[in-house]
Design brief:
six-stranded parallel β-sheet, four-stranded mixed β-sheet, 22 helices, 16 strands
């Protein structure tokens, strides 16, 4: 069986318009996939060069496959389970060498810089030096890249670049620009360059959403047999996707992905979309998974097939979260419907214990704003969101910390609770106290919640009552009583 190559696809050469920091699964199944479709639809006509930003691993297989690979999207589409395969041909090259990387700054047609350097990638490093080849940090590398382009084209403002970071941090583009400007100052680069970055370059803030499950290693040969060729860098993911791009200058005409029918939204404020995702998608996960685990389920899809858990989740989203959000109600309900559809994906076994990681901080970020917003709007507690606190506390009960995790117990089955050590130590030391003391102590931890939640009227009593019910009657019985 042949390895995927150019002769199989008739891969076209296009002008290089995109430099991409990162060759990982997400970017290839999201950004590069979308650009490939836009190329096919005649809306972009540009290729991508991938830059491998770390030393670990190599790019041999990219070169062996002419930088082509299959994206296999698997999930529910229009009520039917489908697998949609596409060979992506939008990547022209993949490089790691510093000289080749800097040479990309000299390409006349270059316009966009995409990055996914993890949440820790967009940080200012005062120890970076201009003389380093390359600097250590991503903002340092980008600053030097931009400076080389500025010098190559003698400050021509038409040669500025558009930054499209997709790192999962708040205001990613704003933070990236801040780091670049700090580096310019640190290195004492010219005012003319600083002005060029300010006026000729665009730093967008983005929100991205697609579950990418990566390379199907466990079923590798089976996948190749179905495709009819070997593909060592194929990527699997879900059909759903959303890319929200906020910029202070309009780039929609030169990056016309919506014109190719792609789920890309250009806006002057991405925050309502982020709030929608965090509160509905992520908030739903955090509010039901711990209760679902203690009801005996192991993966998200089982939870959706469990009528009690699914009913709890739907009432949490539609009755308690959506009323606190600012986007139009119909738009919110449509997004929530997509969330439920995604949770039901027959091709993804999303483990509840994997989602449970760091649930205390996740609950603060994803669920607490909905609870407080509901109280402010309606003057009463949201029952299901309140119950989720009791479910979290029940899940986190354990007497022993072993290998950095608290050991819980589900009907005689041990499981590992993973969180920051102060969280684990709190639950180990407090979970066997009387319920009222336990709840009061937990809600009072301002380092966990940012405030003393005992001050929310009625919350301490309600959580204590729910937790007593869970202890006495089991999670499922307690869950059903409020559903």
């Amino acid at each position: 069986m042949d390895v995927l190559n150019k002769s199989m696809t008739g891969k076209k050469e296009r002008p290089v318009k995109v430099v991409q920091f990162g060759e990982g699964n997400f970017l290839r199944a999201f950004v590069d996939y979308m650009i490939d479709i836009a190329n096919e639809q005649g809306k972009f006509d540009g290729d991508i060069v991938l830059i491998k930003p770390i030393d670990f691993g190599n790019l041999d297989m990219f070169h062996k496959q002419d930088c082509q690979y299959t994206v296999s999207l698997r999930g529910n589409v229009d009520g039917e389970a489908k697998i949609i395969n596409r060979v992506v041909t939008s990547v022209a090259d993949a490089i790691h060498e510093y000289e080749k990387y800097m040479g990309l700054a000299e390409i006349d047609t270059l316009r966009f810089v995409v990055s996914n350097t993890t949440e820790a990638g967009i940080v200012y490093d005062a120890d970076d030096k201009f003389e380093m080849n390359p600097p250590k940090s991503f903002p340092g590398k980008l600053t030097k890249f931009l400076y080389h382009r500025f010098e190559t084209f003698q400050g021509d403002k038409s040669k500025g670049l558009v930054m499209l970071p997709v790192e999962l941090i708040d205001d990613n583009g704003i933070m990236l620009k801040k780091c670049v400007m700090q580096q310019i100052a640190n290195w004492g680069l010219s005012d003319a360059f600083k002005t060029w970055v300010e006026e000729a370059c665009i730093f967008t803030a983005t929100l991205v959403d697609r579950i990418v499950t990566g390379y199907p290693r466990a079923t590798e040969q089976e996948e190749w047999d179905k495709l009819g060729y070997e593909d060592h860098i194929m990527v699997t993911g879900e059909p759903f996707a959303l890319w929200v791009i906020e910029s202070d200058k309009d780039i929609s005409k030169e990056f016309d992905l919506p014109g190719a029918g792609l789920p890309v939204v250009f806006t002057d404020d991405h925050h309502p979309y982020k709030q929608r995702k965090v509160r509905i998608l992520n908030g739903a996960h955090t509010s039901f998974v711990l209760a679902s685990w203690l009801c005996g389920n192991n993966i998200v899809r089982e939870s959706m097939e469990d009528g009690d858990v699914c009913d709890f989740m739907n009432k949490t989203i539609f009755d308690e979260v959506i009323p606190t959000l600012t986007l139009p109600e119909e738009e919110l309900k449509a997004f929530a419907g997509e969330v439920v559809n995604r949770f039901n994906n027959p091709y993804v076994d999303h483990a509840l214990l994997a989602i449970s990681l760091n649930s205390v901080s996740k609950w603060r970020a994803r669920c607490l704003p909905s609870l407080l917003g509901y109280v402010d709007k309606f003057g009463k507690l949201p029952a299901h969101m309140t119950f989720s606190i009791a479910a979290l506390m029940a899940f986190y009960c354990g007497d022993e910390i072993k290998d950095g995790a608290l050991v819980g117990n589900r009907n005689g089955e041990a499981y590992l609770i993973k969180d920051d050590m102060p969280v684990l130590e709190f639950f180990r030391d407090n979970c066997r106290k009387d319920t009222r003391s336990f709840v009061t102590a937990y809600l009072g931890r301002e380092d966990f919640h940012g405030q003393d939640l005992n001050q929310v009227p009625g919350l301490t009593d309600a959580v204590a009552a729910y937790l007593d019910d869970i202890k006495e009657n089991g999670m499922r019985a307690a869950l059903c009583r409020i559903s």
